[in-house]
């Protein structure tokens, strides 16, 4: 909470075919977390309490594209929605925005996360409807 935070106003998209327009969040850009890290790794695995993981290309976490958020619609993030802190990657399907984040591991190669191991698309671009493997 001591890190600089910002307000984020974005649309979010769920793999179950719903979209919520104009959602409001407050959190810390992952650019802030990574600003002093130099790496040749191109991928990341986000780890959550409870064993959930999700994989992402590192380029999708930097450049103002992702945040660790702790408020939604002006209120602290509720536990059932990932509180106290969750990842927010709004340009991908919402399963990539892991709840209850406890860490991020940078990796040289891409490995599937929790849902990707059960047949979800490895990337999850909602504009291409990348819901399941093979989409």
From TrEMBL:
Gene3D superfamilies per record: Oxidoreductase, molybdopterin-binding domain
Domain Oxidoreductase molybdopterin-binding span(s) in chain numbering: 2-115
Range of residues in the leader sequence: none
SUPFAM superfamilies: Oxidoreductase molybdopterin-binding domain
Residue ranges that the Swiss-Prot or TrEMBL entry lists as coiled coil: none
InterPro entries to which the protein is assigned, alphabetical: OxRdtase_Mopterin-bd_dom (IPR000572), OxRdtase_Mopterin-bd_sf (IPR036374)
Protein name according to UniProt: Oxidoreductase molybdopterin-binding domain-containing protein
Native species: Nonomuraea maheshkhaliensis
């Amino acid at each position: 909470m001591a890190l600089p935070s910002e307000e984020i106003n974005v649309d979010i998209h769920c793999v179950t075919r719903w979209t919520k327009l104009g959602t409001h969040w407050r959190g810390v850009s992952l650019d802030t977390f990574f600003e002093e890290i130099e790496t040749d790794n191109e991928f990341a695995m986000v780890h959550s309490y409870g064993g959930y993981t999700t994989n992402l290309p590192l380029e999708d976490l930097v450049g103002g594209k992702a945040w660790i958020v702790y408020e939604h619609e002006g209120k602290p993030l509720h536990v059932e929605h990932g509180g106290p802190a969750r990842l927010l990657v709004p340009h991908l399907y919402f399963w990539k925005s892991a709840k209850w984040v406890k860490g991020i591991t940078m990796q040289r190669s891409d490995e599937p996360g929790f849902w990707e191991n059960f047949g979800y698309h490895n990337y999850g671009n909602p504009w291409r409807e990348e819901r399941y493997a093979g989409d």
